[in-house]
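RECORD TYPE: inverse folding
INPUT: structure tokens
STRUCTURE:
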């Protein structure tokens, strides 16, 4: 059970967040927060706004035409518009639904972010080893650094993508359905990794898998048709939801 926290423990929060894709009202007056060094899960049926909300926090929605955003998004007590976009995406990193290593060697994948963000070090191997160890890959891959990353298994590719992200020292990690392309054993291993990583990072995950949300998250938010219907500790959301729509979704009556 998460301990009681204060407002200063919010890594991310929104106030009255509205988002429109053209005339489509995608997010509706969302007040939301993510606690530091926790795992927060966004759950809800397809098309409810989970991924749209997730992408707000590193401004990925800016890449979509005809998007309009109203309200406040605050990262570490700073309004998001005050961040340089490159710095924001270093602080708030994202791992996508399908593993997407670059078509380079493992080594080149791992140093790519360092070069892009001007973080080249005299000893990049120290960073590479530390980050690959953090995701449990080093022992399996230390002799394959010059091998194409595309030859790895799907699970190892996803771990590599997380390790590649860790090289640039993010504070917040966004995970958009990170296990949807993985088998159950690989999914379990990635979930174990998430729990280990929250010691040093704040994690926000979008998932269709309610069992996954129940297993790994400390907090959960249920979304429906662009509304954040309910937010609370995962235990409360899954065992004593306050909104009947949350209960109906959790119990499988819709979605």
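DESIGNED SEQUENCE:
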């Amino acid at each position: 059970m998460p301990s009681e926290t204060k407002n200063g423990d919010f890594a991310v929060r929104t106030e009255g967040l509205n988002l429109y894709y053209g005339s489509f009202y995608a997010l509706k007056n969302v007040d939301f927060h993510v606690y530091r060094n926790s795992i927060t899960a966004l759950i809800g049926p397809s098309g409810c706004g989970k991924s749209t909300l997730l992408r707000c926090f590193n401004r990925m929605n800016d890449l979509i035409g005809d998007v309009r955003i109203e309200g406040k998004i605050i990262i570490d007590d700073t309004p998001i518009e005050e961040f340089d976009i490159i710095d924001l995406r270093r602080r708030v990193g994202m791992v996508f639904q399908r593993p997407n290593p670059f078509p380079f060697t493992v080594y080149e994948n791992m140093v790519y972010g360092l070069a892009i963000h001007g973080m080249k070090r005299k000893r990049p191997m120290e960073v590479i080893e530390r980050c690959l160890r953090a995701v449990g890959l080093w022992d399996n891959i230390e002799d394959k650094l010059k091998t194409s990353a595309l030859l790895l298994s799907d699970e190892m590719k996803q771990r590599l993508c997380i390790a590649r992200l860790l090289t640039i020292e993010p504070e917040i990690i966004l995970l958009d359905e990170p296990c949807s392309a993985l088998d159950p054993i690989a999914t379990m291993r990635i979930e174990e990794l998430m729990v280990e990583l929250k010691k040093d990072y704040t994690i926000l995950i979008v998932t269709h898998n309610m069992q996954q949300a129940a297993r790994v998250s400390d907090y959960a938010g249920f979304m429906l048709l662009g509304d954040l219907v309910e937010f609370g500790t995962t235990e409360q959301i899954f065992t004593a939801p306050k909104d009947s729509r949350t209960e109906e979704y959790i119990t499988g009556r819709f979605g």
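NOTES: Confidence is low (pLDDT under 50) at residues 3-7.
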